Amino acid sequence: xxxxxxxxxxxxxxxxxxxxxxxxxxxxxxxxxxxxxxxxxxxxxxxxxxxxxxxxxxxxxxxxxxxxxxxxxxxxxxxxxxxxxxxxxxxxxxxxxxxxxxxxxxxxxxxxxxxxxxxxxxxxxxxxxxxxxxxxxxxxxxxxxxxxxxxxxxxxxxxxxxxxxxxxxxxxxxxxxxxxxxxxxxxxxxxxxxxxxxxxxxxxxxxxxxxxxxxxxxxxxxxxxxxxxxxxxxxxxxxxxxxxxxxxxxxxxxxxxxxxxxxxxxxxxxxxxxxxxxxxxxxxxxxxxxxxxxxxxxxxxxxxxxxxxxxxxxxxxxxxxxxxxxxxxxxxxxxxxxxxxxxxxxxxxxxxxxxxxxxxxxxxxxxxxxxxxxxxxxxxxxxxxxxxxxxxxxxxxxxxxxxxxxxxxxxxxxx
Length: 415
Prior knowledge:
By secondary structure, the chain is an alpha/beta fold.
């Protein structure tokens, strides 16, 4: 396996569902979480037999992984190392939400010490806001004071790669409110900040509240103003805006931060990642798959020594190049023609001809192949470039800051 490979482990458990959350998550007692950990370790063993190669990143996501007992997390981490070749310098991240690390300082300290001893070297904390009223509205279980305490304890214990999440455009929140949240997060000097515009997703409490007229979505114009003001603030505070929603702290005035999320970068670069756990998705050498999201079926499959894969699809050449462009345009560097060509030819390596791989594609220059595949989109793509929304040069394509506001429209040209 020559390409970079990440490992994603999903934990679907939360203390309570947040008002905006549409992810696969729910409350469960400790016995269910223990049974899940045992099933997950068996899945890790089965997956280790199927997938070989070196693991460059491990990401514990959810849900709320930090709700799990540390003894179970330690067993899971040992199972990962036993069944996969995890690189010594692998980035190992856990989503560790404030409010789930512990109520008392000594409990928080003990849990974080345990994470360090397992080899976890990156914390990703779902802060979302530094205003207690907004936190309550969002349905979060922590306070702003919890955030400050947990970050400070993590620093004392040697964690030097911390991400803090921020949600803006919360109903009733002004641009200045969002900027004040951002300033308080910046004051904690995290190495990485992720900023997301709140979306009212169907099936969430916020969506139902909006349907009933109890809350109103922030207008697009105000949302975009807030977004660009946050970008300006973060750049001025020494953060590199390297992906639509992600910012990494710069060191020594360098142009590229060492704190870019290595794991998420695998997604944006169409690299390999193995997804394990309930409802997890994976992408391995041009094959996409998704695990069942039914807990009983998940347990049953693993009890029968079967991976709990519900869907599996071999990507065509067009699927690969389309996904490479769509995700690559999220990065500030954009997508290069060479990257797009490599994605297209990946299907040939897998023997997939579902899209009718262009004869002689491997001998074409990367830009020639790109525009041959996307010939029907070229005129509209160049119109976006003429409007200052997109840059097209000899290397490839990238969105301008103005183009980010209509990124979905531009990206849709390549789907």
